[in-house]
Amino acid sequence: MAHMTEVMDWDSAYRGEGHFDGEPPWNIGEPQPELAALWRAGRFRSEVLDAGCGHAELSLALAADGYTVTGVDISPTAVAAATAAAAERGLSERATFAAADITALDGYDDRFSTVVDSTLFHSLPVESRDAYLRSIHRAAAPGAGYFVLVFAKGAFPAEMAPGPNEVSEIELREAVSRYWVIDDIRPALIHTNVPATSGPPPPLDLLDDRGRLRLQAFLLSAHKQS
């Protein structure tokens, strides 16, 4: 995976160029299982902000279940793909997408009852985290829920380094608690496709039953003060 502290051209990644040979590995064709479990448990409320939505499988799944969702991503290519997928699935009225900088999100003040971050947090430059957390807090309605799935420190084995900006639990807690009331942080897993590289294959104990990597993460649940 690309080292996220470098300047990352996200649009090139979604065009299948640059760091990856073809689809970026985080495009697994379905919502991350940890977040899908929260959705199925009824933890999300409309209207939902999908922060850093990418190809937006989570947004599309929620829209198909009756939620109203807005996906925001910095990549116009990803947003175009998500918009086309919503149209193909008959979900355009409930799932809409915008190409925008999530760290400076305007026009959505106090709007969303749920904010979901499916592997965005570790993709941001460390110095942008505070602006991001402040931005989505402004977009959230009073009492809104906030859910973050983020790589934990040490998630990437040495042979796969360098990776994204992984976090420790303390680091995550300190950053988020400046704006949000944290309800829970627990160990979790992020599933990704195995990147096409010339290096050695990943250890088998890191693979799920579909041959995808399972890497250590945290799942944070928080809310905005009412």
Indicate the overall shape.
globular
- Which stretches of 5+ consecutive residues score pLDDT under 50? 1-7
In quaternary terms, these chains amount to single chain
- Major sheet description: 7 strands, mixed
Strand order of the largest sheet: 3-2-1-4-5-7-6
The total count of helices amounts to: 6
Structural class: alpha/beta
Rounded to the nearest angstrom, the distance between the terminal CA atoms is 39 Å
Find the count of extended strands (DSSP E, 2+ residues): 7
Mean pLDDT: 89
Output the helix-strand order.
HHEHEHEEHEHEE
Helix percent reads: 10-25%
Percent of sequence in beta strands: 15-25%
Radius of gyration: 16 Å
Structure overview:
The protein has a domain at 73-103. It is 23% helix and 25% strand. The chain has 6 helices and 7 strands; from the N terminus they run H-H-E-H-E-H-E-E-H-E-H-E-E. The chain has a 7-stranded mixed β-sheet with strand order 3-2-1-4-5-7-6. The longest helix is centred in the middle third of the chain and has 13 residues, at 76-88. The protein is globular, with a radius of gyration of 16 Å.
Keywords:
seven-stranded mixed sheet, methyltransferase, 226 residues, disordered N terminus, alpha/beta, globular
Brief description of this entry?
This protein has 226 residues and is α/β, with parallel strands linked by helices. The chain has a domain at 73-103.
